[in-house]
Protein 1
Amino acid sequence: MQPVIVSVPMGNGRSRGEVIPMPTNVDVNSTRQISEADDVRLSPEQQADLERRIAKAKSLLVLDHPFFGMAVSKRDLIYDYNVPTASMDGRGQMRLNPTWCFPKTVGELIFLLAHEAMHYMLCHAVRIGNRDPEAWNIAADLVINDTLIDAGVGTFIKGGVTFDGARNHSTEELYNDPPEGGGGGGGGIGNDIDTRKHLSESEAKEIEGQAKVELIQSSKAAKAMGKLPANLERMIDEIVHVKTPWYDILERYMTNKIRDGWSWRRPNRRFVHQGIYLPATDYLPKMGDVVVGVDTSGSIGQTELDAFNAHVGRIIDTCNPASVTVIYCDADVNHVDFFRPEDFPVRLSPHGGGGTSFIPVFDYIDEHGLDPEVVVYLTDGYGDQHDFTSKHETVWLTTGTPNFSWGTVIEFDVNA
């Protein structure tokens, strides 16, 4: 194959050279006679034609839909034959498959570019956690597609998923409770949220912060031109000012500790014929032991326990820890429950009701030889946390004061 250097427009006005393998048997005289199903590379003339139409799509977006136009113009774009259709990763890198894009009209390319940019603006690759990628992608596409259709952006690409009213819901809501009667599917852009590159907690926070800045900048520019739809303005306001629910923060914290496990229950069959027995890889999410401390001094009542129970089951199911030990404590440890995976889901119930001290929980852990990967302590925060520290990684899930000098603090709002 003869490589060809393709100049790829970037959001900052510069170009980026990409080497794309070119088969020698492509008819270079054809410019629009390629089906998206064809497994061929574009000729230089076809690539130039596609770039011209994408440049036109960008220009029309800036003129007619400045919010989406600015969002697209900030994204670095790479033409990549290795993605089936298009993709957007957590860091804002957009990739387009030239063969798939080539038969699309300018209107469809407008829709495509805005769709991909919105995946970044809404931080879909960051918010996925350990959810099922395909189901998460569908939920995210429902929100984006309905938003673009309602705003009259470009031409909807046939085969994509749609649901009227999805724009009024979060991706998490549609993932947890998929709507009945959603139209389309089986085609369109498909699985385009690229989550192959792991993001650390600090990277995720940085990306979310940058995306919010870009949301504000793009919305101000569009509003100044009188071209910011009211529904989109409401959505942006909710995203910018929303307080992330405690269970999303806790889930992200916990899933960052997931590791791929090894299982000796069944040998790796690839090596058995050689007389070598190696553990097979078990790709179920897995983490070590977890301890849950519960402040039973009277500050944590049934309402807080119900709110915790409503979400912790899903988090535990996702992380699949080796065990969960629940330690109920007021001034002293007054009850302990131990859960193995076969005992899940974990449920908290009220015990005790005296004074408040956090020290007995950590003493119990050390005295009983527990080695938790993390300690999650549910409390109102009014205790003796400043009188000691612990070697154990701790998350304070507090319904009251966030005044802790050590550990990770997550504010617990039962109404979130």
Protein 2
Amino acid sequence: MKRTPAGRLVALLGAMVLALVGVIARLVVLQVGDHRALAAQGLQQRVHPTDLPAERGAIVDRTGVPLAITLEARDIYTDPRYVTDPIGEAAKIARVLGMRARDVERRLQTPDSTFVYLGRQIDVHIADRALTPRTLAAVHFVSPRLLHRTFAERGHTVAGWIRTRRLDAVARDLADPALLHRSIRAVAESRGFIDAPHFNRLFRQVHGCTPGEYRATLTAPR
């Protein structure tokens, strides 16, 4: 049976209407149902976050000689409530910070205080050497026992965390071309590693090579 021209037109119109309905239904799904996921996907494809550390501009005179420089420094403070041996702890801290033990002891025994500065604008190397489990606990205003328990719950130890922090600092210093004039021993001591064999052994365990090999690999001319 042959269709009339009018019938063919009706069939074609029906197919077009069905296609249009399908397109509209798909648009509704995209715009209403999936728009959040698709928007997030598009944003992820277009936007790539990058951390750009802020750097202070140089302050120089008309001949280019720096008039001011920026040096990283830290403040060292404590909570006297958690100081159990003021004389002994003052002696250790004073030796590292280059202060008089009597002055440190007086600050450690400040009455009715929960926050006392032991040093302001301390050189980063010195501040790292002064870091111990007890001083770390005091800095965060918790007891040493709570600090050790908190680290243990995460499968770590306080001493291990401090050691890793110092090893990372040594690795950064060894990779710094500006510090090539300093011996490896001097770099290690500035970060609190006094025993050279012990330091070399720890460094090899973490980085898989000696400190000398590490420095040579990263500072070799390319």
